[in-house]
Amino acid sequence: DQQVKQNSPSLSVQEGRISILNCDYTNSMFDYFLWYKKYPAEGPTFLISISSIKDKNEDGRFTVFLNKSAKHLSLHIVPSQPGDSAVYFCAAKRASGSEKLVFGKGTKLTVNP
Amino acid sequence: DVKVTQSSRYLVKRTGEKVFLECVQDMDHENMFWYRQDPGLGLRLIYFSYDVKMKEKGDIPEGYSVSREKKERFSLILESASTNQTSMYLCASSSQAGNTIYFGEGSWLTVV
């Protein structure tokens, strides 16, 4: 039973364009969401997060949007750069420190020069 | 900066060997985790620990055990390695009050 779903295993975009990565969740108790970026042979690094009290959080080129009614979040990267090519994992949890993160299976983003 | 260090980056072990993967964090975090990553399967939680000497099973604990004798150190043990345990293993930590977990660089284990 996948509680966090990333339905697109891969995405390819041109440099300079927008990349949109999508994530759906089923557990209505989740109220904190994170995106991680992972290069091959490295551990995931934290990218950006959002609490359920917000519907948008922005950090430079990265913006996360949350639609609680649809149980959907998305990560926008504008403009996309070749260095953004990586696997992106969506994760969700209940906002209590002891609750574990639930990860999606990841989306491989390729940004073409 | 949070530092999670995994002692071995690349290991090759034989089937049936006992394997130890060590992880140390320097941020005094209460929570520590072991994941494995496989293509198409994402990040799967093996075991986690909320405190010294405490451990809880994750989603795929079979064939693994863990040890947390000190707050900063969390070890993953494969009692008898098998070829289906060939994978990338990721250690992570977080504070009790925090929502973000921080990962180490990963350990690539090949069981032949």
Describe the secondary structure blueprint for this structure:
The complex is a heterodimer of chains A (113) and B (112).
Chain A (H helix, E strand, L loop, with lengths): L3 E2 L4 E5 L4 E7 L6 E7 L6 E7 L4 E4 L2 E6 L4 E6 L8 E8 L8 E2 L3 E6 L1
Parallel strand pairs in A: 2-11
Antiparallel strand pairs in A: 1-3, 3-8, 4-5, 4-9, 6-7, 7-8, 9-10, 9-11
Chain B lengths: L3 E3 L3 E4 L5 E7 L5 E8 L3 E8 L6 E2 L7 E6 L2 E6 L8 E8 L7 E2 L3 E5 L1
Portion in beta strands of chain B: over 45%
Helical residues, percent of chain B: under 10%
Q: What is the N-to-C succession of helices and strands of chain B?
A: EEEEEEEEEEE
Largest sheet of chain A: 6 strands, mixed
Task: Report low-confidence residues of chain B grouped into runs of 5 or more.
Answer: none
Q: Helical amount among residues of chain A, as a percent range?
A: under 10%
Largest sheet of chain B: 7 strands, mixed
Q: Order of helices and strands of chain A, N to C? A: EEEEEEEEEEE
Distance between the termini of chain A: 38 Å
Could you report the average pLDDT of chain B, rounded to the nearest whole number?
A: 93
**So what's the overall shape of chain B?**
globular
Number of alpha- plus pi-helical segments of chain B: 0
Walk me through this protein's architecture.
The complex is a heterodimer of chains A (113) and B (112). Chain A is mainly beta. Chain A contains no helices and eleven strands. The termini of chain A are far apart. Chain B is mainly beta and 112 residues long. Chain B is built from no helices and eleven strands. Chain B is globular, with a radius of gyration of 13 Å. The model of chain B has no long low-confidence stretch (mean pLDDT 93). The chains are: A mainly beta (113), B mainly beta (112). The A-B interface holds A 9, 32, 34, 36, 38, 41-46, 49, 89, 93, 95, 97-98, 100-101, 103-106 and B 4, 30-31, 33, 37, 40-43, 45, 48, 50, 58, 90, 92, 94-106, 108.
